[in-house]
């Protein structure tokens, strides 16, 4: 497996791809590689070159810096534990919920949020 930075970039790549609802095959087609290469990038087995990172940022509609956001905070997050936010958003279930939420109009979103709060005893954990 690659070094910590390669793994971190791969996690950011996977998170953004899933957030956009793209398959590995679709992303691979957009940047001109096979889906297996995307798999290797996402797990950190292969390094992402600067040119490929640029192509991925264009395909995923983010600046190149997106992939490095929070990198200096990585050690802190590992000390606290991944369950406190980082990996929660990598779950398919979470991403499906967020996508469905933002497809709703403003009023139904507020009602859904109120419902979620009431089911949790009126409290949401502060991030």
Supply the key terms:
about 130 residues; mainly alpha; 434 Repressor (Amino-terminal Domain); 2 domains; about 60% helix; about 0% strand
In short:
The chain has helices at residues 4-19, 24-31, 35-43, 50-59, 74-80, 92-103, 106-119.
Question: Could you explain how this protein is built, in words?
Answer:
The chain has 127 residues and is mainly alpha-helical. It folds into two domains: 4-81, lambda repressor-like DNA-binding domains (434 Repressor (Amino-terminal Domain)), CATH 1.10.260.40; 91-127. 60% of the residues lie in helices and 0% in strands. Helix 1 crosses helix 3 and helix 2 (24-31) crosses helix 3 (35-43). The longest helix is centred in the N-terminal third of the chain and has 16 residues, at 4-19. It starts with a helix and ends in an 8-residue tail after the last helix.
Count of the separate structural domains: 2
Find the CATH superfamily of the largest domain. lambda repressor-like DNA-binding domains
List unreliable stretches of 5+ residues: 79-84
* Nearest-integer average pLDDT: 83
Count of strand segments: 0
In the CATH scheme, the class of the largest domain would be: Mainly Alpha
Helix-residue proportion = 55-70%
For the CA atoms, what is the radius of gyration? 17 Å
Distance between the termini: 31 Å
């Amino acid at each position: 497996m690659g070094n910590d930075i390669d793994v971190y970039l791969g996690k950011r790549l996977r998170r953004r791809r899933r957030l956009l609802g793209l398959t590995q095959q679709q992303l691979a087609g957009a940047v001109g590689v096979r889906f297996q290469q995307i798999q290797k990038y996402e797990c950190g087995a292969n390094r992402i070159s600067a040119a490929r990172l640029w192509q991925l940022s264009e395909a995923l509609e983010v600046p190149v810096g997106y992939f490095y956001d929070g990198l200096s905070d990585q050690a802190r997050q590992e000390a606290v534990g991944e369950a406190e936010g980082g990996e929660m958003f990598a779950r398919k279930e979470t991403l499906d919920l967020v996508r469905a939420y933002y497809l709703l109009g403003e009023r139904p979103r507020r009602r859904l949020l109120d419902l979620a709060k009431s089911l949790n005893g009126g409290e949401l954990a502060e991030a």
